[in-house]
Amino acid sequence: xxxxxxxxxxxxxxxxxxxxxxxxxxxxxxxxxxxxxxxxxxxxxxxxxxxxxxxxxxxxxxxxxxxxxxxxxxxxxxxxxxxxxxxxxxxxxxxxxxxxxxxxxxxxxxxxxxxxxxxxxxxxxxxxxxxxxxxxxxxxxxxxxxxxxxxxxxxxxxxxxxxxxxxxxxxxxxxxxxxxxxxxxxxxxxxxxxxxxxxxxxxxxxxxxxxxxxxxxxxxxxxxxxxxxxxxxxxxxxxxxxxxxxxxxxxxxx
Length: 254
Ligand SMILES: [Zn+2]
Ligand SMILES: [Zn+2]
What we know:
globular; binds zinc ion; Metallo-beta-lactamase, Chain A; 7-stranded mixed beta sheet
């Protein structure tokens, strides 16, 4: 599985882009960043955008992708997510107030975007990827994902505080190629992490203890840029050789 980092941070700052990834050149996984990291040709190639939740640091790129590829694509780009996600995007983002409703533009018969609802905790095919959304612990309905492409299996935590269900599903998987897990706040802000449904390095280490696949590399993402130095030092201090840091713009073979 090819995974390109469009942005791997929990908000935006100079040289830190918001959370978004491109899988196998066609499927975007969370859309905090799309247009600012891809050429027009690469954007036209996108077939689906899979979203974990409605927060802007995971959805902002949808609106500018739509604007960029409108009238240039043969079939609509699917906005893929569970029921809560689709409703949230329809009501709060593509609502003709925040942004035009690109599910009827340029015409209702041949729109730029199309909603595709997938069931929670079941496997759906998304452009050649087998995707299982599993609910995690965040203030709005949020899914982590287990994603397979026939060769490898990627676990994506989504924005989450301490959680259980997704790790149970992961432990049922025969193999796991990589785990992407969030870490947003430094250890001293653990109460804020709990309040906002996020992890610190200490909490991340406790989550990893719930996973039986102890050989899979762990890619940490969603670091809040203002705490970058602190988070990096605390993650290094965990002394876990599986932990890797992601970089905006870099492509990984999972
Ligand atoms: Zn986020
Ligand atoms: Zn969030």
